[in-house]
Design a protein that fits this description.
Chains A, B: It comes from Heyndrickxia acidicola. Two copies of one chain form a homodimer. By secondary structure, chain A is mainly alpha-helical. Chain A contains eight helices and two strands. Chain A is 66% helix and 6% strand. Chain B binds a DNA duplex through helix 2 and helix 3.
Chain lengths: 191, 191
DNA sequence: GAGTACATGTAAAACGTTACATGATTGC
DNA sequence: GCAATCATGTAACGTTTTACATGTACTC
């Protein structure tokens, strides 16, 4: 029953919001979950099949002309139950963290200071872009204005990521300062 | 030349700090880099071999009795060069983010509020543990007090992660508040 | 005419962890 | 006596992405 496979639950979760095709699921994840989750088609289509095999979802095929037929998936009661059980289970596995930026920075004593500063500036730029994306998402989410509880949980997850990037942007500024300062640390001691 | 493989550079980076065996590299990564990187033996040993094949490192075997022989790896000039080039290259790939906690929270409108609050409290607990681990690391890093530049970069990377968890802990408190409040949203409007 | 959106699906490749095998020594 | 530390290495397994195949319709 592969309780480990998180993609499974991600798919069930999206289906909870309403029936959808694999294609639509991909889009939903990209739009609303991209700041903390992603799935490729290589995961989505085979897993949707398995969902049906295990009675967690049903399919209806909508015949189309010109385009491939649409396979519209809906969550079943059993699917809802399995998802709910998972949602309430405490998280045990803390999967590997990998941050390429920090890996580089950690070993950066061997490159010129200017280069390190440049890397940090680029990282800050990237974080600014992400924070702007979040701001747009927030507006979109508020505009959609569905059920109040749904909005609450979307808002909470968005705030989590937003706060994280904001913190990182502040860190970038600090970091640039500290690196600049270390260029000429003697001056301050001389005065 | 597999420029994609980040493990490669992680190994080179650790070897930059001094010659080491695969076993010691694992320990170093676990102690100092664990908050942003990890490597398993299944990655370390085969990649160390490849490092030697590509002249980025050399091995010396130290014969031991009772234990397996030690293979001590040292970085070569070419290794240093390859590492430095990578350090200065801008980061292009932003690998998949996967946050199981947020995935659960996003879909939590379908479980009782109390359960969601419990999940957030557990997440906060985890973050507190991590922040304490960071505080210890900071002390250890200061105590080692090697070269000043080395200390600077370690301190910077640590602060990055530290600030991130601190932000998340604050978010947890906020989040718990907001969830508690949504239990009885009517009261406030009634008054 | 090129590119994008719609729509599904698979095979190959890369990536990464876990578990196993081996085996002495030291501390509880 | 059991667990942990030291030390290396591989095979199996699972996960995940990428690239490919297919094909219409619409927009620039």
């Amino acid at each position: 029953m592969s309780r480990e496979n998180k993609s499974f639950y991600a798919l069930l979760g999206v289906l909870l919001l309403g029936p959808a095709t694999g294609y639509e699921i991909k889009q939903t994840i990209e739009k609303w979950l991209s700041h903390f989750w992603c799935e490729s088609y290589g995961q989505i289509y085979p897993n949707l099949k398995r969902l049906v095999e295990e009675n967690l979802a049903t399919v209806k095929t909508e015949v189309q002309v010109g385009k491939p037929n649409k396979n519209i998936y809906s969550i079943t009661d059993r699917g809802r139950q399995v998802l709910t059980e998972w949602l309430m289970k405490p998280i045990v596995s803390h999967p590997p963290v990998k941050n390429e930026f920090l890996l580089k920075l950690f070993f950066s004593q061997s490159i010129p200071l200017e280069e390190s500063i440049e890397q940090v500036k680029q990282h800050k730029q990237k974080m600014l872009e992400i924070s702007m994306f979040f701001e747009h998402l927030k507006i979109d989410a508020a505009a959609q204005c569905q059920e109040e509880t749904e909005t609450l949980y979307r808002s909470l997850t968005l705030d989590y990521s937003y706060r994280a990037v904001k913190g990182i942007i502040e860190w970038c500024d600090d970091c640039i300062h500290r690196l600049e300062k270390s260029k000429s640390p003697v001056k301050e001691e001389v005065r």
